[in-house]
Amino acid sequence: MTEDAVVDLRDEELLTIGAFAARARLSAKALRLYDRLGLLAPAHVDEASGYRYYRAGQVERARLVAMLRQLDMPLARIAEVVEADGAEAAGRLAAYWAEVEARVAGQRTLSEYLRGRLSGRSSEMYGKFEVETVDTPAQVLITETRHALADELPAWIGASLGRLEEAARECGGMTGAPFVAYHAEVSMESDGPAEACVPVADEAAARAWAQRRGRTWETGVRVEPARRLAYTRITKAQVAHPQILAAFEAVQEWMAKEGLTQTGLCREVYFADWDAAGAEDPVCDVAFPVK
Q: Residue 210 domain-assigned?
């Protein structure tokens, strides 16, 4: 019996890998790969010859796997889609594609930003930001610190500040706008860490709260001295990476021109209701402590 034959096993017609590949319009090599990856196992493997046999009903799954791979979908996500039924499978595909489009949109923006830098238009980009200074008082801060890459940062910032704002009720209430301070660069390759901070009124209560929390969420309490901040105000749309990079660089360029020295951690100060704000509404100050 050759591997290209159609055989009957257990009263069910099975196709050899060659015949099945022809029906599925795929190569035998691709089918062997799908088997190895756990995406499409043969219905039967002959113990003596090692020949693989497939059911005719597996053709649709084979074609689906092939098309999903053309979308550069990770193998684990492909498995989730092909194992689901109907609307659930469609929903999982839609969720994946939304992520792809968001990533491509971010890459497109980054490309435009880099073209501006490479073409010498940096000063033009920075000119869109008005930079000022403001004096801030000493503050008691409850904090939460995490190592995070740029694409992980937005979700963590929202969740972390939410937890800290809730905790502030135990610490005499909030006394200023929450902010995120950066101990090191956050990008797609560098993970900070970043520190979410909420100013509170009662230092003793804050330290008691931190002691109860222990190491959960990497929480802590610190007192930040009075600062002078050089800052620029940006909209909700400009907060996204990499748009926000231009704001940070604009403030740094202004500081250099003014002869100011950075004296602390750069930060994003969130003074507005994020959920209620529109894309063009001011929501955040990009700021550097200076002297």
A: yes
Do residues 213 and 157 share a domain? yes
> Looking at the structure, do residues 72 and 162 belong to the same domain, yes or no?
no
Q: Provide the residue range defining the domain that includes 103.
A: 88-120
User: In terms of domains, do 157 and 229 share one?
Assistant: yes
What are the pLDDT digits (tens) for 117-143?
787 765 555 567 899 999 999 999 999
Among 8-12, 36-40, 75-79, 115-119, the range of highest mean pLDDT: 75-79
* CATH number of the domain that residue 49 is part of: 1.10.1660.10
Residues 6 or more apart in contact with residue 15 via CB below 8 angstroms: 6, 23, 53, 54, 55, 56
d(CA 50, CA 44): 10
pLDDT-derived band at 237 (thresholds 50, 70, 90) equals confident
pTM score, whole prediction:
0.64
